[in-house]
Amino acid sequence: MESIRIIEPLASRCAKFRFKPLSEEVMSNRIMHICNEEGLNLGGEALSTLSSISQGDLRRAITYLQSGARLFGSTITSKDLLDVSGVVPLEVVERFFTACKSGDFDIANKEVDNIVAEGYPASQITNQLFDIIVEAGDDITDNQKAKICKCLAETDKRLVDGADEYLQLLDVASNTIRALSEMAQDL
Amino acid sequence: MLWVDKYRPKSLDKVIVHEDIAQNLKKLVTEQDCPHLLFYGPSGSGKKTLIMALLKQIYGASAEKVKVENRAWKVDAGSRTIDLELTTLSSTNHVELTPSDAGFQDRYIVQEMIKEMAKNRPIDTKGKKGYKVLVLNEVDKLSREAQHSLRRTMEKYSSSCRLILCCNSSSKVTEAIKSRCLNVRINAPSQEEIVKVLEFVAKKESLQLPHGFAARIAEKSNRSLRRAILSLETCRVQNYPFTDNQAISPMDWEEYVAEISTDMLREQSPKSLFQVRGKVYELLVNCIPPEVLLKRLLYELLRKLDSELKLEEHRMRLGQKAIFHIEVYEHIQELPHLNIWVEKRRMAPNPGKEELLVLQGEYRATKVGNISRLFNFDLSCISALHAQALTLAALAGAAAVEYYDHKTGATDRYPKFLKPDNLTKD
C-alpha cells in the first residue's frame, strides 16, 4: 500500500505503477453500469452519497451497493446507503462536539458513554470530528484547531495500536475542552 | 441453566431488542446467498445471539447441533512445521472459532482453517446453499498479519465459504476487511429495552418484578443485557419476593477496585503504593483484564474526586491515556507498577516535572524488557534498534536518578534543562 515501505534495492529493480483513488466520474460510471446489469434503481443523490462515503474505494462502493440492494430492494435511497455503510450520523458527532464546547466535563463524559454504548467506532468518530473541526467557523481560532487536531492525530495512532475506545474518546473530549477553553496544555 | 442462556432468542423472529436488525438479516439470507458479515458492538449487546439466530435461519435446526472439538493442525511453514491447537465449535454447516487464542500464530489458523473448510465444500442435491459459514470471534484481537491473510482467503474462497466476523471495536479491524464485509452495528440496548427483557424473563419464570427494581437493575447494568439478566438471577437467589429497594450487589472485583481508588486518594506514600500494587496484582492474577481494570479505576476516581479537582483531572486523564496506550502492548507484569505510578503522580498535590521524567523513563525501561515482543514500535522515538537501546538505557538511568532525588527531597536538576515535551519527540 505504501511504496515507502519497500526497501530501496527492491524498489530500484522494479517498474513502478502508481494507482490513485478513482475519480468520482469513473466510479459513477462503473456503479451505473452495475445498476443497469442488476436492474437497480439508484437516484442521483444516492449516487453522490455513495461516492462520498466510499472515498474513492470502488470495492467498498460496490459492497455497500450490494448490501443495500439485498436489504432494501431494488430502489436504493441515500439513507439506505448510509445505514449499511456504518458512517456515524452527523448529529452524533455534532452532539459530541457541542458537549465539548460546553466546557463541562460531565456532559462530555456522558456523551462518550453514549457513543460507546451505541457501538459507533471511535476511529470513525475521530475522522468525522476532524472534518467538523477543520470546517468550523470563526468561533474557533486556528491555534485551537491545531491543538485539537494534534490530539486527534495521537488518538488515531493509539487506536490503530489497539488502545481502548472509551478512554481514547474521553481523551479527545478532555483535550478538546481544554483547547476550547484555552487551558494550559502541558504534560 | 442460567437465564442468560435459557432465554436467549433462538430465531430471528423471536428477538426482542434488535428487531429491525433481525428483520434485515432475515431478508439478507432469504436469497440463498449472503455477503461476508462483520458484527460489531459493545459486549452484552447481542452480537452472538444474532449470529446464532442467523445461522439457524440459514441452515435450520441442524445449526444448533454443535460439537466442541479440540483440533490440532500441523502447518508447514517453509523449513519447519508448526503445531497448533485450537478449540472449535462446529455443526455440519458452520465452524466457530476464536483465532486470536493462538496468539501470534493466529494467521496460520486463519489460513489453514479456511483452506480446509473450502476443500470440503458441502454438496446439496438442489445445488443450493453451497457454502459453509465460518464464524470468527474477537477479530479485533487478531494480529495485523492475520488480518491481511484473512482478506486474501476471503476473496479466494468466496464461492464456497462465508465469513461472519464478530468484534467489539471495529476500529481495530483493518479497512481492507471492513470494505469486504457488510458491517452490522449492534448497539447496546437502552435501559427501557433492558427493562422490557427483564420483565419478559420474570414473566416466563412467573416472578413478581416491581418496575422500580427492574429499572434499577437496568441502570446498574451499564447497558449490558447479559449483565442485567445475570444480576436479576443473582437477586432472585438472594432475596425473593423482590422489593423495590432491594440491594443489587456489585461484582466483587468492582468493589475491590473501589477500595483501591479510596486507598490511592487517602495516602500517597511509598507504603500505600506498595499496598495498592499488591491489590492490583491480586486482580490481575484473578484474570481481570487490565483494560477493564483501568477503565473501572478511572470511573471510580472520577466519581470520588470533587468537582474543583476536575480541571486538574484533565491532566490526569491525559496521563492515563498515554499509559493505557503503553499498557495495551506492554508486558502485563510491568503494568500495575506503571499504572500506579501514574496514579500517584497525579494524585500528588503538585506534580513536579521530575516525576514525569521518572514516568517516561520507566515507560521506556519497560520497553527494553520487551524488545523481543515489541511489535508496537513507537515510531516517533524509534527508528533503529541499537540507537533505541542506548536511548533507553540513558533514560532509565536518568529516571532512576530523578526518582531518588525526588524521594530524598533533593532539588530537581533536570527540569531546568529538559522539558518533558522534548522527551516525547525525540
From TrEMBL, chain A:
Stored CDD domains: HLD_clamp_RFC
A UniProt-annotated Pfam family: RCF1-5-like_lid
Keywords: ATP-binding, DNA replication, Nucleotide-binding
Residue ranges annotated for the Replication factor C C-terminal domain, each copy included: 91-173
Gene3D superfamilies: 1.10.8.60, 1.20.272.10
InterPro entries referenced in this protein's UniProt entry, alphabetically: DNA_pol3_clamp-load_cplx_C (IPR008921), DNA_Rep/Repair_Clamp_Loader (IPR050238), P-loop_NTPase (IPR027417), Rep_factorC_C (IPR013748), RFC_lid (IPR047854)
Keyword Iron listed: no
Keyword field contains ATP-binding: yes
Protein name from the UniProt record: Replication factor C C-terminal domain-containing protein
Upper lineage: Eukaryota, Viridiplantae, Streptophyta, Embryophyta, Tracheophyta
From TrEMBL, chain B:
Pfam families xref list: DNA_pol3_delta2, RCF1-5-like_lid, RFC_C
InterPro entries named among the record's database cross-references: AAA+_ATPase, DNA_pol3_clamp-load_cplx_C, DNA_Rep/Repair_Clamp_Loader, P-loop_NTPase, RFC_lid
Domain AAA+ ATPase: 33-192
Keywords: ATP-binding, DNA replication, Nucleotide-binding
Superkingdom in the source lineage: Eukaryota
Quaternary structure and partners: Heterotetramer of subunits RFC2, RFC3, RFC4 and RFC5 that can form a complex with RFC1.
PANTHER family attached to this UniProt entry: REPLICATION FACTOR C / DNA POLYMERASE III GAMMA-TAU SUBUNIT, REPLICATION FACTOR C SUBUNIT 3
The protein, known as: AAA+ ATPase domain-containing protein
Source organism (scientific name): Brassica cretica
